[in-house]
Amino acid sequence: MQRVTNCVLQSDNQILMLKKPRRNWYAAPGGKMEPGENIKQAVKREFKEETDLTLVDPELKGVFTFVIQEDGETVKEWMMFTFACKKYEGKLTDYCREGELEWVPFQDVLTKDMAEGDKTIFDHCMNRDEVLYGTFTYTSDYQLLSLQLD
Amino acid sequence: MQRVTNCVLQSDNQILMLKKPRRNWYAAPGGKMEPGENIKQAVKREFKEETDLTLVDPELKGVFTFVIQEDGETVKEWMMFTFACKKYEGKLTDYCREGELEWVPFQDVLTKDMAEGDKTIFDHCMNRDEVLYGTFTYTSDYQLLSLQLD
């Protein structure tokens, strides 16, 4: 089962977002866990690889189950661990192999094109303190079928 | 990949522990996530199944990667999500299929026989507020080989 970690980094009333080339959808930088890693190691490593920035004290804000369904059958399931962070070290990279990195003002974050469920996640990370739990069910072309939050 | 949830339930300076028959080791009640569940649904369902108690507002206290190694090779990897909770509803079951349930006074919890890494987890859940991240590497007969905490 795939496990993904990502982080919503806030600084100066902006969020660091990654515009991915496939659909021009925005997301939080991050990526797949490697075998034996814990989730905090994974998010720090992935964030550094994509941005050159070192996260300082990222905090877990969401644990999500993602289900991909086709014709009512589950074809894939994975987990995503979303952190939020307000402090970092380093200088943002000029080049990210995954897409374009962009500091986006708070008020513009939810207006960007993104997977529908990701708006819930960004909104939570920017505005709430507790950990959010949920299951997002998507079609294989990323139309949100259902959303269950706890 | 197997995903397990469990919960350290505190009440009246006691912890509800489960003594499992295989090694007579103590553990926190819990069990495997089912497809499509989020981790909070899973821990509430599993805890209820094993104890008849309904957890009220369980909070995530640990996210752990478990690695089983034989002769230096990883043969299995799974995730464990550990909650802590101070409130419940219902009456403890007379019979649990997984072992014997026992309310254990705080000061006795860490003296019980258990997997070595579980002492760290109980200690954290009883005494700390933040989320702990870590990787526990065991042999297939549950000797702790290494422990990495974040």
TrEMBL record, chains A, B:
Molecular function as annotated in GO: hydrolase activity, acting on acid anhydrides, in phosphorus-containing anhydrides; metal ion binding
Record-given protein name: NUDIX domain-containing protein
Annotated keywords: Hydrolase, Magnesium, Metal-binding
Family classification: Belongs to the Nudix hydrolase family.
Lineage summary: Bacteria, Bacillati, Bacillota, Bacilli, Bacillales
Gene3D superfamilies: Nucleoside Triphosphate Pyrophosphohydrolase
Domain Nudix hydrolase: 1-127
Gene Ontology CC: one annotated term: cytoplasm
Lineage: superkingdom: Bacteria
Cofactor(s) listed in the protein's UniProt record: Mg(2+)
